[in-house]
Design brief:
- The complex is a heterodimer of chains A (254) and B (544).
- By secondary structure, chain A is α/β, with parallel strands linked by helices.
- Chain A is 32% helix and 14% strand.
- Chain A has one domain.
- In chain A, a hairpin with a 2-residue loop joins strand 6 and strand 7.
- In chain A, helix 3 packs across helix 5 and helix 4 runs antiparallel to helix 5.
- Chain B is α/β, with parallel strands linked by helices.
- Chain B folds into 4 domains: 236 residues, no CATH class; 63 residues, no CATH class; 39 residues, no CATH class; 177 residues, Rossmann fold.
- In chain B, a hairpin with a 2-residue loop joins strand 2 and strand 3.
- In chain B, helix 11 packs across helix 14 and helix 14 crosses helix 15.
- The chains are: A alpha/beta (254), B alpha/beta (544).
């Protein structure tokens, strides 16, 4: 199929055939020249796949290390340790914000990634966001079936992370000055231990919001289901300041 | 005159185009007569270059005129035809792939119109990219001169990036950073990897969604329907009736989801009706009443299963018997294929099917009696119009088996029959009417009224009985007693396991004319052998 014949050669064969024997019924096909052309798409797709392989490998290594703990508990030490491991692998990868989004969807594809452990996955994605080259990252995750926990962990100053869709528990914990925007709902313990920065949740937020929060602001477009024990900082519900305030008490459901 | 000139150009370039695309089986395209152009199309009609209907591509001469001075006529036509042919030879390739792409797009977009729009853009990008990568084509030149709306501008920008060819879309032109970001996202999609199209279309739709929604809002504000696609609409007009039939069958088999199938069929109901799908639901042509998507689902799904039906000696005025051969066509059923003369191959031009002919004289020949299907639609059974019901699927397969052998089928659909919860359909060969009766759901108690069944069973030539139930029947003992009295061949299929089914099995185990099958999952359905009598094929069993 790939062989290329010049027209002259074909015509000489044709004459030979006429003179010396029956004509080849497939003669017409011989002049077909298969032209394989490289287009930039090939390069873009190939390099995106390579980066994805590296990101996947890093995640698998993180899981290997975390698998030593039989139960992955969301505890300060566990999170810090997992984050440090994630940092170690991520620093070596050259990736973009789109790669992070692709990784989030790959997590749901069991053929590509065998395990989705919500804790380490969230830590890993947070580390990816924190070390991304871009200052502004948009993750279009509204079709994702799983809500990712711990997203926005330690988001540094001058970084803005927008998540289209809902997020899980521990969203934006230990925020370090960054801006986290959740276009949907966020679950419990959002903004726990955050030091500075801003969290916008366009819809509703769960319990223990801002637990041990040391500073920064949380803006909620819908309802706040429950506040945590806040040390310092501000929480707004539909533009109304609910913390500090006299009306709301920690962990009360309303 | 102009049309004739253009038709002459097509005649000249068509052999080269066919060769370039490895000789696709597509008729020679034609130029649309200016008289054929609908008046209301007006200026918008000029903007559409290509129409495709049942593999026939038609070029709009007004579009060619619009491109005058920008591109030579033959180049415009070559580019349009390259694009059109790539739809047949690469993407979407077949109707089932088209449905899959649309269904995935709808998951992201939410509504029918924008899903169709985004699926069309996706299909176009793939077809054009395929041509640019694999063929020598004028498509990039055509893109350079096309009139573009906002979305088309972004698509051109994407093509410019992934093809590495200047299409005249400058960075400053592509409005702002948002568009650049969208293009960056779109450029990462592996368009030419067919195995990843379902994942790719989701990503494509996700990235393009804000732009398409904004454009729709803008057009709503203007009161217009928006720009038409210059390369033609990628709708179902492309496909022949047989391709649609085949595609629906495959789609039903792959999804196995009633709601998913229903949604797609309802979204494309206009196009399907246009293609000949009406109340006949896959049998016959012509416009008709709305499509019953649920019935169509069971029809197409049942087509995927073939249940063997054992014949018995019947006194008949001449049965149908294989008489001569005729060529098999794509989309035709396989059951009449003669494997010997087809060399064991399913391939148009090679495969042959038996043509049957009515025999002469009265004699005892092997034949298939009519069948009475007794189906349980009580509350303990699945509602076939809400979820996939194996009972209905099993009964549908049985229906197909009998109808295929030119027998008739009657239906007794029951729930609490003595209280009026039953539907009786006399022996007929109208597949759709039978399926309608099978899909009826009462959802009440479970009791049979044997008085209803008796007239159907006591025919001159005794029919076969096919009962499908979970056996949780209030008057099960009466049914067992009734079965004990009749000699008809009975195939009893029970869904799932329960003490009632065990009781029934025990009670009739010595009856040679009753065969019991259990259906737990769809894979069990082909195991049903209709009307098999043990001793008929195994005399040893009779002696025992």
């Amino acid at each position: 199929m790939k062989s290329i014949h010049s027209p002259e050669r074909t015509s000489s064969r044709c004459t030979d055939g006429d003179l010396h024997g029956p004509r080849n019924p497939f003669e017409e096909f011989q002049t077909f020249a298969f032209q394989k052309r490289e287009i930039p798409l090939d390069q873009i797709v190939q390099s995106a796949e390579q980066v994805m392989d590296q990101i996947r490998l890093g995640y698998e290594k993180l899981l290997e290390e975390e698998a030593k703990e039989l139960v992955w508990m969301v505890q300060y030490n566990t999170i810090i340790k997992a984050y440090e491991v994630a940092e170690r692998y991520i620093k070596e990868i050259d990736y973009t914000a789109e790669d992070i989004e692709d990784f989030c969807f790959a997590l749901e594809n069991t053929q590509k990634i065998p395990y989705l452990i919500p804790g380490p996955a969230g830590i890993y994605i947070s580390a990816l966001c924190n070390y991304a080259k871009e200052g502004e990252i948009v993750l279009k995750l509204s079709e994702l079936k799983t809500e990712i926990n711990l997203i926005g962990f330690r988001l540094p100053k001058e970084k803005r992370l927008t998540v289209e869709g809902d997020t899980g528990d521990f969203t934006g914990i230990s925020l370090e000055g960054g801006e986290l925007v959740v276009e949907g709902n966020a679950k419990n313990w959002t903004g726990a231990g955050m030091r500075s920065g801003k969290i916008w949740v366009k819809k509703n937020i769960g319990l223990h919001t801002g637990e041990w929060m040391m500073g920064g602001e949380i803006y909620v477009g819908g309802r706040v289901r429950g506040l945590g024990n806040i040390v310092e900082g501000k929480v707004f519900e539909r533009d109304k300041l609910v913390y500090p305030g006299k009306v709301r008490y920690p962990n009360q459901y309303y | 005159m102009k049309e004739e000139k253009l038709q002459a150009i097509i005649r000249e370039i068509w052999p080269q185009l066919r060769k370039k695309h490895l000789y696709p089986e597509i008729p020679m395209p034609r130029i649309r007569s200016l008289r054929d152009a609908p008046e209301e199309e007006g200026e918008k009609g000029q903007g559409v270059g290509l129409e495709m209907k049942e593999k026939l591509m038609t070029i709009n001469p007004l579009f060619i005129s619009l491109m005058e001075g920008k591109m030579p006529e033959e180049k415009v036509m070559e580019a349009l035809l390259d694009h059109g042919i790539a739809h047949y030879t690469f993407c979407p390739w077949d109707f089932q792939t088209h449905l899959m792409i649309y269904a995935e797009a709808k998951q992201v977009m939410g509504d029918k119109e924008s899903a169709k729009q985004v699926a069309n853009y996706f299909i176009d990008v793939i077809a054009d990219t395929h041509c640019v990568k694999k063929k020598v084509t004028e498509i990039p030149e055509l893109h350079r001169h096309l009139k573009k709306g906002t979305v088309q501008e972004v698509i051109s920008s994407l093509c410019q990036k992934i093809w590495g060819i200047d299409l005249g879309v400058s960075a400053s032109k592509s409005e702002n950073r948002t568009h650049e970001e969208i293009v960056r996202r779109l450029a990462r999609i592996p368009y030419l990897d067919r195995s990843r199209w379902s994942e790719s279309i989701r990503k494509f739709a996700r990235s393009l969604k804000p732009l398409i929604l904004a454009e729709q809002r803008e057009q709503k504000g203007k009161g217009g329907k928006g720009e038409s696609n210059p390369q033609g609409k990628d709708d179902l007009d492309h496909y022949s009736y047989e391709e649609i039939d085949n595609g629906l069958r495959e789609y039903a088999r792959k999804t196995m989801g009633l709601s998913q199938f229903r949604e797609v069929v309802e979204d494309f109901s206009e196009e399907l009706k246009e293609a000949g799908y009406g109340a006949e639901g896959g049998m016959g042509r012509g416009r008709s009443t709305p499509i019953d998507a649920d019935i169509l689902f069971y029809m197409k799904l049942a087509d995927n299963y073939s249940i063997p039906l054992r014949k018995i000696p019947l006194e008949k005025g001449g049965d149908l018997h294989p008489h001569s051969h005729s060529p098999w066509e794509v989309g035709s059923p396989y059951q009449d294929v003669d494997i010997w003369t087809s060399f064991g191959k399913i391939m148009p031009g090679v495969t042959q099917v038996w043509k049957k002919k009515q025999g002469k004289g009265r004699e005892k020949i092997e034949g298939v009696p009519d069948c009475l299907i007794i189906i349980d639609s009580s509350g303990s059974m699945i509602n076939p119009r809400k979820n996939l019901s194996y009972a209905v699927l099993g009964a549908a397969c049985a229906t197909n088996a009998y109808l295929r052998n030119d027998s008739k089928v009657a239906v007794y659909n029951f729930s609490d029959a003595p209280m009026g919860g039953r539907d009786i359909l006399d022996f007929i060969d109208d597949r759709e009417a039978i399926y309608k009766a099978l899909c009826k759901y009462f959802g009440g108690g479970t009791a049979l009224d044997l008085e209803d069944i008796l007239p159907l069973v006591k025919k001159k030539s005794p029919p076969d009985l096919f009962i499908i139930t979970d056996m949780k029947i209030t008057n099960l003992e009466a049914l067992i007693g009734f079965f004990g009295q009749i000699q008809n061949r009975i195939t009893a299929v029970h869904i799932g396991e329960n003490p009632y089914a065990t009781r029934f099995e025990k009670a009739v185990e010595k009856r040679k004319n009753i065969n019991i099958f259990k259906v737990k999952k769809k894979e069990d359905i082909p195991n049903i052998v209709l009307g098999s009598i043990r001793e008929y094929f195994n005399p040893e069993d009779k002696r025992r």
